[in-house]
TrEMBL record:
It comes from the Bacteria. Coiled coil: none annotated. It comes from Psychroserpens algicola. Residues 5-167 form the FAD-dependent urate hydroxylase HpyO/Asp monooxygenase CreE-like FAD/NAD(P)-binding domain. This is FAD/NAD(P)-binding protein.
Length: 570
């Protein structure tokens, strides 16, 4: 019997298994499936596991999870696999357009995903499905078969689908220096990764620490929230309509959190509710136009030297939205064409100066302004508008540009621009940004060193100095900058061995694995068809938009399942 290995059963691996079984049942075929997952909650995986801190919030609203659809009944090998509800059905979602969006802790979505996995596999027979609770360390390809090796066993398979998520990469020079420094001195410490948050239990209730946090994005917010929801204090929402928040201390503490990044720019929160979010929504006609313009380039081998095929459509949509905001937008006397030109300049250089763009001279005031924009209480700046329009366009971009036939350098530039947009498009909930302000007001979080401070090592830890020549001493450093999926820098044994054996290669030296539209790997070094498919973060470059939870349930998984079943013998 044909044997398939699915390596990684997080959300993407779960949906791959679902689509595999659906397609096998339609074709009246059956195989043996070996599922490898080291975490003890398949479906949830390492990101969504249910025994994690409440400080880890989802960064997608429950309203937006309407596209996390349920699973149909599956008849497979004379067994009935029951259906499973959509996320909205599972939580009995109901919300008015003007009610603030809700962002539950990650572990809530983890419960949904794990329950969905359990309902899928409980009806499968052992000879057709086996869960192997081990990490795969190596895959070898010999005599047209794959040998999948864990620490204790090896398994022979005909095909493999790799759906593993975030993998460790080579530490940066800076983090290596910090770790060596901490090892050489007592009473200081460096955390090279901010997850899991449970590792901070030993420090979160200490009252006399200055903690530096490298990074000023979503992960920093999780760390901040975890460290300050402690024995001495907690957050209290004092205005539910805007999530205005105070930090309430029940005992004096001298904890100080000092985040910093290369540019010091804060994330902008998502709109407070559906009513405000709809201000930025492109029309169906605009999204079709956007799709057509992208595919006219990405589906051909046309030579392009700029990102005009992407930025011009976005500028037209964003300009139309901004003009139609009228009194909700910052005051101006520009026509739509002039706004388009300004959007193009900003997309080319986000430091473009104009009174319609947010003034970032004060980080605190910038955060406050974005909160008011997101809440419909202040005039919308053009940069905030562009970011929200980009977010609405992202699903079309991800679908239309994946597996583009363009020069690798252009693909890299598209991904870089999308990454830059995430300060807005992947923005946190309003409440998260209100918590930052509450901690600043409580003199616990400092924004004084947020913009690329000078960092010096000393016997007491680290000294940070800002542009105003203010200094602060740091006892503990936490790295909250998540590694980019650069294939050649990944240190996980499964990946390093695949590269060494010429079974995978990157689409670009700075990106992930080169794959076909059906997810199977492309290698120039090996002339054989390698029966390995890759879905997810490690294929970034071949596909884009790999990090979003809804992408784990997107069309690329269906494309792989159909292609895999179609090539099976009768």
């Amino acid at each position: 019997m044909t044997t398939l290995a699915i390596i990684g059963i997080g959300p993407r691996g779960l949906h791959a298994l679902e689509n595999l079984l659906i397609n096998l049942s339609r074709a009246n075929k059956h195989i043996q499936i070996l599922a490898f997952e080291p975490c003890h909650e398949p479906g949830a995986g390492q990101v969504w596991y249910t025994n994690q801190s409440d400080a880890n919030w989802t960064n997608i609203s429950e309203r937006a999870l309407k596209n996390l659809e349920g699973r149909q009944e599956i008849h497979y090998r004379d067994r009935l696999i029951e259906g499973f509800p959509s996320y909205h059905e599972w939580i009995n979602f109901a919300q008015s357009d003007k009610a603030p969006d809700t962002f539950p802790p990650r572990k809530q979505l983890g419960r949904y995903l794990h329950e969905r996995y359990e309902s899928l596999t409980k009806s499968l027979e052992h000879d057709s499905f086996q869960l192997i609770n081990s990490k795969v360390e190596r895959i070898e390809f010999k005599q047209q078969q794959l040998q999948v090796l864990t620490k204790d066993n090896s398994y022979i398979c005909d095909d493999a689908l790799i759906t593993i998520g975030h993998q460790p990469t080579e530490l940066s020079k800076q983090i290596k220096e910090w770790k060596a420094h901490a090892k050489a001195h007592q009473n200081i410490n460096t955390f090279e990764d901010c997850y899991p948050l449970s590792q901070f239990e030993s420090i979160k209730n200490q009252k006399h620490l200055n903690i530096g946090i490298r990074g000023f994005g979503l992960a920093m917010i999780d760390v901040m929230r975890d460290l300050t929801t402690n024995s001495f204090g907690t957050f209290r929402v004092v205005d539910p309509s805007t999530f205005k928040t105070q930090y309430i201390s029940n005992e004096a503490q001298h904890l100080k959190l000092i985040p910093f990044s290369l540019d010091g720019l804060p994330m902008a929160p998502k709109p407070l509710n559906k009513h405000i979010d709809d201000w930025f929504k492109p029309t169906d006609e605009e999204l079709n136009y956007f799709k057509t313009e992208l595919e006219a380039v990405s589906r051909t081998q046309i030579k392009v030297s700029s990102l005009d095929f992407l930025t011009i459509p976005i500028s037209k949509i964003a300009a139309r939205v901004f003009v139609e905001l009228k009194s909700e937008a910052m005051n101006h006397d520009l026509n739509q064409k002039q706004i388009e030109t300004l959007v193009l300049k900003w997309l080319d250089d986000s430091e473009t100066k104009h009174h319609l763009f947010q003034d970032n001279s004060s980080t605190y005031n910038t955060i406050k302004s974005y909160i008011q924009m997101a809440s419909g209480l202040a005039s919308i700046s053009l940069d905030y508008c562009i970011g929200q329009v980009w977010r609405h366009c992202q699903p079309t971009l991800y679908k239309s540009f994946s597996h583009a036939q363009l020069d690798e350098a252009i693909i890299e530039k598209v991904i870089a621009l999308d990454e830059e947009s995430k300060r807005f498009s992947y923005g946190p909930p309003v409440e998260s940004m209100q918590q930052i302000l509450a901690l600043v007001d409580a003199n616990i979080l400092s924004l004084d060193y947020v913009n690329d401070p000078d960092i010096k090592l000393n016997d007491k830890g680290w000294q940070l100095e800002n542009a105003q020549q203010q200094t602060i001493q740091i006892d503990i450093m936490i790295n909250s900058v998540l590694d980019a999926p650069k294939l050649l820098e990944v240190t996980a044994p499964i990946i390093t061995n695949l590269i060494h054996n010429d079974l995978i290669e990157p689409i670009h030296s700075k990106l992930g694995i080169d794959t076909k539209p059906n997810a199977y790997v492309i290698t120039e070094e090996n002339n054989e068809d390698i029966p390995i498919a890759v879905l997810g973060r490690l294929s970034k470059g071949s596909v884009i938009g790999v990090d979003a939870i809804l992408e784990c349930f997107g069309p690329r998984i269906k494309d792989w399942a159909e292609a895999y079943v179609n090539q099976l013998g009768s």
